[in-house]
Every structure is written in structure tokens, then in C-alpha cells.
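Posted in: Protein Modeling Q&A

I'm a second-year student putting together a small comparison for a lab meeting, and my supervisor asked me to include a predicted structure for NCS2 family permease. I've never done this before, so apologies if this is the wrong subforum. The sequence is pasted below exactly as I got it from our records. If anyone can share the C-alpha cell output, I'd also love a short note on what stands out.
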Amino acid sequence: MGIVDTLTARFDVEGHGSDFRTELVAGITTFLAMSYIIVVNPFILAEAIQIPGYEFIEVVQMIAIATILASAAGTLVMAVYANRPFGLAPGMGLNAFFAFTVVIGLGIPWQTALAAVFVEGLLFIALTAVGARKYVIRLFPEPVKRSVGAGIGLFLLFIGLQELRLVVPDDATLVTLGAVFGNPWSILGILGLGLTFALWARGITGAVILGILTTALSGWLLTLGGVFERGVVTPESLPAAQYDITPLAGAFLEGLADIEPLTFTLVVFTFFFVDFFDTAGTLIGVSQFGDFLDEDGDLPEMDEPLMADAVGTTVGAMLGTSTVTTYIESSAGVEEGGRTGLTALVVAAGFLLSLLAVPVVAAIPAYASFIAVIVVGVMMLQGVTEVDWSDPAWAVSAGLTVTVMPFAYSIADGLAAGIVAYPLIKVATGEYDDVDLGQYAIAALLVVYYVLQTRDVIL
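Accepted answer (user: helix_wrangler)
Welcome! Here is the predicted structure, written out as C-alpha cells:
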């Protein structure tokens, strides 16, 4: 029996109404659709992860390797254990929370932030193993769960617009429009953004990674053609390929040694909340394309793909990257006919092969990589359509969740605002019986935390 027949039998491809070629094409399609994370995740996390003795771009390459290996590990578990055609990688939004809120904003060492991701992964594994998913879901207000994606989208948009220097600080109004057309960095970013949106609107597979690479190539051609000097729209110098990630891998152990319990708990809580509900929502959303859902709209044996996510997160933290989650871009492969874990196996192989391209990451200017942040941010805004804006409790809770995230520059603060607001409005409207005891408890704990945090009692 050849390898094709072995794989086809192992994943029961024919039993799922598919064939080897379809699964192969689906896997390649999914990988191309989500491969932008190999470039984007390192640039986001490197804003926060500083390793003595290594330059910024060398750290970027280390994180790129950690990103690739964590994505491959999580996706491999999805393939072999869950037999589902879904790809996994470090989640957009959670990487921004890690870098800009936890490390830069709260001043928590990046090693401790990795420790929080590791603990969150273990918690996810434990709750999934004992089948506690349905109990966890009941703890959180529905409007918060429905709106968190849109809030993260706005948060990503704000970050991306700043990185492209389209939005800049202002003494009078805090932020304002930058001197866009006097800045070649911004001009190339806008042109690349326009191209990427156009490719995405046309339904081109891999639109985001194509936009990133085309924009980066344009910057290099202008530099090599003498229009700009090195360092203006391209990196000033390129280091040798950096494949040694030992300064990064295992750093979470150092982070476990010195933690502030209350703040650390909130960080773990936020990572877990977003990871859990983002993964669950993505699994349901992508499964609709493949007709995987049962008559109740649930994904049968959902704990298995959730376990893949949890394992990917734990491995990722050990290697040196933020939370791993299932990607909505998996729908591209499902639409191509992917129905089994063989599709995911191809995605995992694609990530491993991309290790060869790690040196290329160093040549990509930051403005090109942050195009993806804006594009993904816009895509995530569709979550606002899932909110019942006619219901006061939903409107206030979801509205605060969505808006506080970018305004406070923190996913955690947005979640807290929505969670606290929900029971308050329910009590005000006489519908206090609609709120579970656990929801009251979480809201009360968050109030206590923020009273202490804003009075500088804790970090």
C-alpha cells in the first residue's frame, strides 16, 4: 500500500466524501490563506520581547521559528487526534494583547507573559479533558461572547494604523491623522493596504500574504533603484539567518518564578476567555461551510479540536509565542472540499516547509507586515452583526466591550467592562434572574481588581 492509500485510509477520506487530491488542494489553500501569521506574529511580539545581545530583527526570526513550530504542532494534533480540516496558529489580537497590553502596558516581563500563556494552555487542557466546556460557556454573558471579536478587530485596527503612521500622537486630541503623504513609509503602507483589500474582495487565495510580499518587494525595488536610501523603506541591514531559539524557548520557566498573583490571574483569565470563545466560535463558523454541524447547530465531538487548540497553546508558550488558536481562514480549505485531518496534515507540512523561508522574514519592512493587522481587524468587525442592539443589557455590555478595548488599549479592560455592565443592566431592568450566580461573582471580582489596580495597590 502506497503512502497515498495509507493516508487516505488513516483519515477515512472516502468515508467523509472526499479524496486525496481534494484534501491536498484544500490544505495548500488553507496554508496560503493563514501563512501571513509567519510574518506578522514575529513583528508584533518583537515589540515586547527584547533579548540582551540580540538585535530586533534577530528576535523577529526567533519568534518566526517559534510561530512556525507552534502552528505545526497544534495543527498536527488537529489532524491526527481530531481528524478535522482546521489550521491553527498564534491568534491575532491575543498577540497584540500579549505585546502592547501585558508587557508594554502593564510592564510585566515577557517571560511572565509567556508563563501566563502556558498556564492558560494547561487550564484549557484540563477543562477540555473533563468535558467542562458547557459549564465554562455559561459563566460569561452572551453579549460579551458575541462582541469580543469586533472589539479585538477595532483594537487591531488602532494598532495597525499607528504602525503605518496613519494615526499619530497629538497633545490636544491624543491622536490625529499623520503627515501621510510626506512619509514614504505611510505611502507604501497605504498602497499595499489598497492592493490587499482589492485581492481580498476578489476572493484571491492568500490575499494577505500576497499583499505583504508585494508591498515589501516594492520597497526593496525602490531602494535598489536609488529612489530611497537603505533604512528608509527597507531594513538598514540584514543579519545572518537566526535558527537558534534557545534564548526564547523555555523562557516561560523564568516567568513562573516571580509573579504578582492578582494581575497574573487577570492576564491568564483574559488569554483563556478570548482563546476559548474565539476557538469555539471559529470551529462552529468554519464547520458550517463543511456541513459538519448536527441538527442542533453543534459540532459533534467538539472537545477533540478544542484539545488541539489547548495543546498548541501550551507548546507555543514553551517555544516562545502567544496563544495558538483555530483560524477562520480554515474556511478557505473547507470550501475547496477539505473534510478530514488530511487537510490539516498538509497545513502542518506547509508550516514546517516554511522554516526554509525564515531568513526572508528579516527582509520584510514592518509597514508591510502590519498591513495584515489592519485587514484582519476589518474582517473581525462583522461580529457586531451578532449583537441584539435592541436589548439594553446586550447593547451596553457589547458596546462597552467593543469600544473600551481600543480606547483603553487593552482586550482585558474591554472584556471586564462588558462583564461588569451586563448584570448591572439586567438588575436595572428587573431581569436579574437571567444572570447566573457565576456571572455575578466574576463581575464582583473584576470590580475589586480594578479598584485595587487603579489605586496603584497592584500593578
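A couple of things worth pointing out for your meeting: The radius of gyration is 22 Å. The chain has 21 helices and four strands.
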